[in-house]
Amino acid sequence: MKVTRIEKAEPYQAPNHFDCTALRLQGFDASSAENFWVGLSHILPNGGTTMEGTNLEKVYIVVSGEVTVVTSEGRATLGVHDSCHIPANERRQVINETNETASMIVVMPYPEGKR
Question: In this model, does residue 112 exceed pLDDT 90?
Answer without folding.
Answer: no
